[in-house]
Design goal:
mainly alpha; Arc Repressor Mutant, subunit A; Four Helix Bundle (Hemerythrin (Met), subunit A); 2 domains; two-stranded antiparallel sheet; 2 strands; 4% strand; disordered N terminus; TF_FadR/GntR_C; WH-like_DNA-bd_sf
Length: 221
């Protein structure tokens, strides 16, 4: 069995998994072995296996179904999707985020568990604390929004969000750097409003607040 020999480990592990899928080891729709099985086969730890799976999910090869496992969704990488992501402009990225996160906020308000609400609150507190360094702020912001998408209990929405994350991160850094401000009290209040709507299980309000927040980020014109 081939093993990972050089960094980055997650990318190498993803490439090896993809080779095995292309080679017919798992058919379309088949369930992959668990992390504890795949890790030794690839020569990496469980966290690296998770990252490799996340990468392949973002490329449309794998799909994670909560409580069921990881399944083969495609027998090859959706190259056009990856190319579209890498070249998308800020407006396209934000419009895609609106499509994903507005619905996710509504679902999270209905489906979130007490533990997930605590995780959202922790992410909100971390985001509020990151007001001095731009990249740390963007990372905390994306972590907050991801916690809400995760609480929606829709693995496809979460896979889409994760596939967008690298491009979203760079787009937000570029946008906020041009605006020369971030982490204002108004911005914090907008995120607090999303959080409280989710906490109160008000799907309509959560959706509306998420939409309004993201719309304010769209470049004019």
């Amino acid at each position: 069995m081939a093993q990972v020999r050089r960094t980055p480990l997650a990318e190498q592990a993803a490439d090896l998994l993809l080779e095995r899928i292309r080679g017919g080891e798992w058919a379309l729709g088949a369930k992959l072995p668990g992390e504890s099985t795949l890790g030794p086969q690839l020569g990496v730890g469980r966290s690296t296996v998770r990252e490799a799976i996340r990468r392949l999910a973002g490329q449309g090869v794998l799909a994670t179904r909560q409580g069921a496992g990881v399944f083969v969704a495609s027998l090859d990488v959706l190259e056009d999707w990856r190319t579209s992501l890498s070249t998308a402009d800020i407006t396209s990225v934000l419009e895609a985020r609106i499509a994903i996160e507005v619905e996710a906020a509504a679902l999270a308000a209905v489906r979130r568990s007490p533990a997930e609400l605590r995780a959202i609150r922790r992410a909100a507190a971390e985001r509020a604390a990151q007001r001095s360094e731009l990249e740390a702020h963007v990372d905390a912001d994306l972590a907050f929004h991801r916690s809400i998408v995760a609480a929606a209990h829709n693995p496809l929405l979460l896979d889409l969000f994760d596939s967008f994350t690298p491009r979203s991160r760079q787009a937000m850094i570029d946008l906020l750097r041009r605006r020369a401000e971030f982490g204002s009290d108004t911005d914090h209040a907008a995120h607090r409003a999303i959080l409280e709507a989710v906490a109160e299980r008000d799907g309509a309000a959560a959706s509306a607040h998420a939409r309004q927040h993201l719309i304010t980020l769209l470049p004019e014109g």
